[in-house]
Write a structure and sequence with these properties.
The complex is a heterodimer of chains A (about 100) and B (about 450). Chain A is an all-alpha fold. Chain A is built from four helices and no strands. Chain B is α/β, with parallel strands linked by helices. In chain B, helix 15 links the parallel strand 2 and strand 3. In chain B, helix 5 runs parallel beside helix 7, helix 8 runs antiparallel to helix 9 and helix 14 packs parallel to helix 18. Classes of the chains: A mainly alpha (about 100), B alpha/beta (about 450).
C-alpha cells in the first residue's frame, strides 16, 4: 500500500494542514459537537482492527484485534450518534 | 482490486473533510455529521472487501457488541455529562489504536519477520500515544464523573518522577524499534505508557479539563495516524491527522483563552494551592447576601440582562430553569443575552450545548469579545456558577495566578448577581474580589433552586 514512508509522511503533513484550515473555521458555539464528531472519526482505527482480526489462525493478536474492534465501534457509533443528538438541539429562535 | 480499495479510502477521507467543514455552521452541521458517518461506512466496507472472508465471526461479534454499547451510551447520556462521554470515547479510540499496534508487533514476532522501514517506529509511537490516551482519558473521566477528586493531585518530586518515567518510556521505544522481536520490552513499554497517562492527568485541576480533553482528542487521532503508518493505510493516516489537527487547534484556543501556555497547563499543577497571599486580606471585607426575592425586584426594573453561565450551572442541571427565567424576563421586555467564555465548563463549547438543550436560541449565546463592550450599558449581570472567568484579578492584580487571562467584564454592569453555593473559592483556588464589589450581590444556594425561586418571585411581582 504505502510502501514509501515519504509518501505517507507527505500525506500526513498535508492532512494536518487541511485539518487546521477547516477546523479553524468552526465557531466556539459548535466546539463540543466538533470534538465528539472528530472523535468519532478517530474511530477510523476500526480499519486497522479489522485488518488485525482478518488472519487465518486465532492467536493472541487476533484477540487484541477483537478488543480493538469492540472499542473502535463504540467510538464510531457512540461518537456519531451523540453528535447527531447534540446538533439536533441547536436551533434558531422559534416563533413562539 | 487494491487500487479500488485505496480509492475508497480516499473517497471516505474526502467525506470526512466535507463533513468537518459543514460543522462550521449550525444549519449545515447535522448533515455534515451524517456525511462523515457515511465516510466511515465506506472505509469499513472497503476494508472488509479487501480482507476477504476471514475471521468473520469475530468481526460480526465485535461490531455488534460495540454498536450496542455505543448506541446505549449515546442515547442515554445526560447532556451535562458530555465532557465525561467525550473523555471516555477518546480513551476507547486510543485503546483501539494501541491494540492494533500491539497486534501487529506480535504478528511480526510470531512469524519471525523483522518489519521494515518506518513500521517499528510507528508501532512504538502508536503504543505510546495510544497507551497514554487510554489511561489519561479514564482519569479525566473519573475526575469529571466525580469518581475521584477533581482538584490537582500533587506530591513532592512529581515532575522528576514523571520525567524519569517519560525518559524510560522513550528509551524502551528506541529498544523496541531497533529489535521488534523483544516482546517483553514491548509489554514494558505498553505498561509505562499506561502509567504515564495516569501520572500526567492527575496533577491537572478541574478547571483545566477543557485543555486536557482537547489534547486527548488530538492524541486519539495521532495514535490512529501511527497505526496508519504501521499498516501502510492511507485512510488511517489522513483521518487520524485530521482529528489530530482538530485537537491541536482546540487545545490552542483553550490555552489562549486562559492566557497560559500548554506547558503551564500540563505541568503547572494549577489549583493545587488553596490560598494565595493576596486573598487573605480580602476575606474580611463584607459581602452583601441577598434573597432571590430581593434579586427579583431589581430584575423587575431592569431593561437589559446578561447571564454568565459556568460549570456550576452544569453541576446543578440548571439549564432548563435558566431558560425559564430568561423567558420570564423577556416577557417583561428585558433584553436577555448569554455571555459564553471559551473555557466556561469542562470542555470546549460545554455551555453552548447545555443551553441549546434547554432550547435557548443560539443567536443569544454571545462570545466573549463581542459581549464585553456591552457590560457597561447592562443593568444586571447574572453570574451562575462561574468564578474564575469573571474574576477581575485577572485584569488588575499582577500578583494573581490568573493575571492576564481574558475575562468577562461583569463587574462593569450596573448590578451583578452572583449565585453561588458558598464562599468557597473556585477550582483554581483563588479568591474572587468580584464578590466584594459594591455593585455585587450574592445569592447563596443551589443554582437551580435559586433560579427557579427567582422566576417565581418575578411572577408574584406580576
Amino acid at each position: 500500500m504505502l510502501a514509501d514512508p515519504a509518501v505517507a509522511l507527505t500525506i500526513l503533513v498535508l492532512s494536518l494542514f487541511v485539518g487546521i484550515e477547516i477546523i479553524s473555521k468552526v465557531p466556539p458555539l459548535l466546539h463540543t459537537p466538533l470534538m465528539s464528531g472528530s472523535n468519532a472519526i478517530s474511530g477510523i482505527a476500526i480499519v486497522g482492527a479489522l485488518i488485525a482480526v482478518a488472519s487465518e489462525n486465532t492467536t493472541i493478536s487476533t484477540w487484541f484485534g477483537f478488543a480493538a474492534i469492540v472499542l473502535a465501534t463504540i467510538n464510531v457509533v457512540g461518537g456519531f450518534l451523540v453528535t447527531d443528538r447534540m446538533l439536533g438541539m441547536f436551533k434558531k429562535k422559534k416563533d413562539a | 482490486m487494491e487500487t479500488y480499495v485505496q480509492l475508497a479510502y480516499l473517497f471516505s477521507a474526502v467525506l470526512f473533510i466535507l463533513g468537518l467543514r459543514m460543522l462550521s455552521s449550525p444549519m449545515s452541521a447535522p448533515r455534515g455529521n451524517m456525511i462523515a458517518a457515511f465516510g466511515m461506512l465506506v472505509a469499513i466496507v472497503a476494508t472488509l472487501i479487501s480482507t476477504g472472508v476471514v475471521g468473520w465471526p469475530m468481526i460480526i461479534a465485535g461490531m455488534a457488541l460495540g454498536s450496542a454499547a455505543g448506541w446505549l451510551l449515546a442515547t442515554r447520556i445526560e447532556m451535562t455529562a458530555m465532557p465525561q462521554m467525550v473523555a471516555l470515547l477518546n480513551g476507547f479510540g486510543g485503546a483501539a489504536s494501541g491494540l492494533v499496534a500491539g497486534a501487529e508487533l506480535l504478528d511480526y514476532a510470531r512469524e519471525g519477520v523483522t518489519p521494515a522501514g518506518i513500521i517499528p517506529t510507528a508501532i512504538v509511537l502508536g503504543t505510546l500515544i495510544g497507551g497514554i490516551t487510554v489511561t489519561g482519558s479514564l482519569i479525566a473521566f473519573a475526575k469529571l464523573q466525580e469518581l475521584m477528586r477533581g482538584a490537582a493531585i500533587t506530591y513532592p518530586g512529581q515532575q522528576i518522577v514523571n520525567a524519569l518515567i517519560g525518559i524510560a518510556a522513550v528509551g524502551l521505544c528506541f529498544a523496541v524499534a531497533i529489535d521488534p522481536s523483544a516482546t517483553t520490552l514491548f509489554a514494558a513499554l505498553a505498561g509505562l505508557a499506561l502509567l504515564l497517562g495516569v501520572l500526567l492527568v492527575i496533577p491537572i485541576g478541574g478547571a483545566d479539563m477543557p485543555v486536557v480533553i482537547s489534547l486527548l482528542n488530538s492524541y486519539s487521532g495521532l495514535a490512529a495516524c501511527a497505526t496508519g503508518f504501521v499498516l501502510g493505510n492511507s485512510g488511517l493516516v489522513i483521518s487520524g491527522s485530521l482529528v489530530g489537527a482538530s485537537g491541536i487547534i482546540l487545545t490552542k484556543i483553550m490555552c489562549d483563552a486562559m492566557n497560559r501556555s500548554i506547558t503551564n497547563v500540563l505541568f503547572g499543577a494549577f489549583g493545587a494551592v488553596t490560598q494565595t497571599a493576596g486573598a487573605a486580606g480580602e476575606e474580611d471585607r463584607p459581602i452583601k447576601a441577598y434573597t432571590p426575592l430581593d434579586a427579583a425586584v431589581i430584575f423587575n426594573n431592569a431593561h437589559s440582562c446578561i447571564i454568565v453561565p459556568g460549570y456550576g450551572m452544569a453541576v446543578a442541571q440548571a439549564q432548563h430553569a435558566v431558560r425559564e427565567l430568561a423567558d420570564e424576563l423577556e416577557k417583561r421586555g428585558v433584553k436577555v443575552q448569554f455571555a459564553i467564555h471559551p473555557v466556561a465548563g469542562r470542555m470546549p463549547g460545554h455551555m453552548n450545548v447545555l443551553l441549546a438543550e434547554a432550547d435557548v436560541p443560539y443567536d443569544k449565546l454571545i462570545e466573549m469579545d463581542e459581549i464585553n463592550p456591552q457590560f457597561p450599558e447592562t443593568d444586571v449581570a447574572l453570574v451562575l456558577g462561574a468564578n474564575d472567568v469573571v474574576n477581575p484579578s485577572a485584569r488588575n492584580d499582577p500578583s494573581s495566578s490568573i493575571y492576564g487571562m481574558p475575562i468577562l467584564d461583569v463587574d462593569y454592569a450596573q448590578h451583578v448577581f452572583v449565585i453561588k453555593r458558598s464562599m468557597n473559592p473556585g477550582f483554581a483556588g483563588i479568591q474572587n474580589p468580584l464578590f466584594f464589589e459594591d455593585n455585587t450581590m450574592m445569592v447563596f444556594g443551589d443554582a437551580k433552586g435559586v433560579v427557579m425561586k427567582l422566576s417565581e418571585s418575578l411572577r408574584e411581582l406580576g
